[in-house]
Amino acid sequence: MLQRTDRGKKKTILVAGGAGFVGSHLCDALLSRGHRVLCVDSYLTGSKANVLPLQNHPRFRMIEADICELHDIDEPVDEIYNLACAASPPQYQADPVHTMMTCVLGTGNLLFLAERHSAAFLQASTSEVYGDPEEHPQREDYRGNVSCTGPRACYDEGKRAAEALCFDMLRTSRVDVRVVRIFNTYGPRMAPDDGRIVSNLIVQALSGEPLTIYGTGEQTRSFCFVSDLVAGLIRLMEVDPNPGHPVNIGNPGEFTINQLAEMVLSMVPTASRIVYHPLPKDDPQRRRPDIDKAKELLGWEPGVPLSEGLRQTVDYFMSVVPGERPPRHTAPAPAKEPQTSPLPMGA
Ligand code: NAD
Ligand code: UDP
C-alpha cells in the first residue's frame, strides 16, 4: 500500500472547493501550518468573500475552475483535498446532472491529476452514502439504504461512485487515497441562502421570519462544528499508514430538528415562530456517526459541543445578516403551527 513519507514537510496543497464553507476553513488551517495552498473553485456555492482575506497571502493562489474541466495544474502538487461539490440538498438538486458529473468526472479528473503529481488525495465523502439508514449509529462497514432514482441520488449515488473510483485507484496503487465520510457540519461562513438546517434556522430567526421545520421535526442529525471537522480532515490526510477504508468524521451528539430549533430560539433575539412544512422525499430519519475508527486510527474526536458551536455561528450570522433585532429577552418559546406553504426550491 502507498504510504506517506513526508510528514512535517512544507507542501503545496490543492484544495478543490476551497472557497466553500468547509474548504475556506481548511485553506486557513493549511496556511497556518506553513503550507502553500492552491484553491480551486468555480464559486458555484462558495463565495469570493470566504477567501477574500487570503487573496494577498504569499502562499495562497486562487484558481477559478470547474473540476469537471480541470485537467492539469502548472506547478507541482503534494496533496489534493477534494471538497468541490454542492452539499446542501436544495443546492445539489438545483442542477442534479452537474452534481453527479462533479462527483464522478470531477473527482476522476482530480484523481488523475494526483496520479501524475504523485500527490496524496483526500476525498470528502458524506454520511449520505448511508442514505436513510436502517442501522444506528452508522459504522463504516454499513452499506447503506440509498435510492438510486430519487431526488437525492445525484449526490448520494454520485458520492458513492466517487468512493468506488477512489478505492479502485488505491487498490491498483495509482494514488494514495483517503476517504472521509463527513456528517452534518456547521459553523461560520455557511452561506446565508445555503438551505441547510443550521443556517436556515439562524438566518430566519435573525430576520424575524418563520423557522421552517420539515416533517414533524422529530428526525435527528448529529452536528459537528467546522473546526473539529477540519482537524479530522488533516489528521486523515497525514496518518500513516493509510487506513485503506473510509473513516466517519462527525459529532455523535444526536439532536432532533425540534431540539435544534429550540436551541436557536434560545440564542437569537427574535419574535420568529416555528412553521411546519412537508418532509422532502427520501429525507433520512436518523443519523449519528460511530466514530470508533476515527478515535482509534486518527486519535480524533470532536471537542466543540453544539451549544458552543451554535453560539459562534449565531455571532457570525449576526455580523452578515442585516436587520433590527429585538432585545434577547423577547425570544418566545417555540410554537407549533399548521403546515401553510409549499417547500422552498428543491427541498
Ligand atoms: P459548500 O457548498 O459550501 O462548498 C462546496 C464548494 O465546492 C463551493 O465553494 C463550490 O463553489 C465548489 N464547487 C462545487 N462544484 C464545483 C465544481 N464542479 N468545480 C469546482 N468547484 C465546485 O459545501 P461544504 O459544506 O463546504 O462541503 C464541502 C464538501 O464536504 C462537499 O464535497 C460536501 O459534499 C462535503 N460534505 C459536507 C458536509 C457538511 O455538512 N458541510 C457533510 C457531508 C459532506
Ligand atoms: N430541514 C428543516 N428545515 C429547513 C432545512 C432542513 O426541517 O429549513 C430538515 C431536513 O428536512 C432534514 C434536516 O433538517 O431532515 C437536515 O437537513 P439539511 O439540509 O441540513 O441536511 P441533510 O438532510 O443533508 O442531512
Features:
seven-stranded parallel β-sheet; single chain; binds uridine-5'-diphosphate; alpha/beta; Rossmann fold; 347 residues; 13 strands; disordered C terminus; 35% helix; binds nicotinamide-adenine-dinucleotide
Write the topology of this structure.
Blueprint: E1 12-16, H1 21-32, E2 36-41, H2 48-51, E3 60-64, E4 79-82, H3 89-94, H4 96-117, E5 120-126, H5 153-171, E6 177-182, E7 185-186, H6 197-207, E8 211-214, E9 220-222, E10 224-225, H7 226-238, E11 247-249, E12 254-256, H8 257-267, E13 274-277, H9 292-298, H10 306-320
Parallel strand pairs: 1-2, 1-4, 2-3, 4-5, 5-6, 6-11, 7-10, 8-13
Antiparallel strand pairs: 9-12
Helix pairs in contact: 1-7, 4-5, 6-8, 6-10
Bound molecules: nicotinamide-adenine-dinucleotide and uridine-5'-diphosphate (UDP).
Structure explained in plain terms:
- This protein has 347 residues and is α/β, with parallel strands linked by helices.
- The chain has a domain at 12-183 and 225-249: 3-Layer(aba) Sandwich (Rossmann fold), CATH 3.40.50.720.
- It is 35% helix and 16% strand.
- It has 10 helices and 13 strands.
- The chain has a 7-stranded parallel sheet, with helices on both faces. Strands 7-10 form a two-stranded parallel ribbon.
- Strand 2, helix 2 (48-51) and strand 3 (60-64) form a beta-alpha-beta unit.
- The longest helix is centred in the first third of the chain and has 22 residues, at 96-117.
- The N and C termini lie far apart (42 Å).
- The protein binds nicotinamide-adenine-dinucleotide and uridine-5'-diphosphate.
- Nicotinamide-adenine-dinucleotide is lined by residues 17, 19-23, 41-46, 66-68, 83-87, 102, 106, 124, 126, 182, 184-185.
